[in-house]
Sequence to fold (146 residues):
Amino acid sequence: MPIPQITVFLEDRPRALHDLLDLLAAGGINIRALSMAETRDYGAMRLIVSDHAQAMRVMTEARLPVREVPVLAAEVPDRPGGLAQIVRLLAERGIDIHYCYAFFTRHEDRAWVILRVQDPAFAASVLARNGVRTLEPADLESFGDG
Fold:
């Protein structure tokens, strides 16, 4: 099942990232996964958080440019070839991965990866039929908290 990802665009200036992280912390929001890319003028930070609605609220109130995108969080065996197995399952069904990044977790023997695909619901069904677990939006509140 798809989960919500937030992309927030940060000015290329000292403290921009720190200010965002402080804002999220003050809102009681725990970051579950993140990826940051830079351009010449700004940074684009992709976030999976414990409380999506609250994160959107605090960033919107702070007038930060944000957008939402549905993504998958897929469980990957933490061994050589684990991610390749997941990617193969999707590729065999013609599902292109636009980008991916890691998910923070404290679970042993498993890793998680965020996958941005054109049709997350279809990709999730392909993975589920092949025994691959994906996270539900409700899992994000407490997932990985020891």
User: Anything to note?
Assistant: The two ends are 23 Å apart (CA to CA).
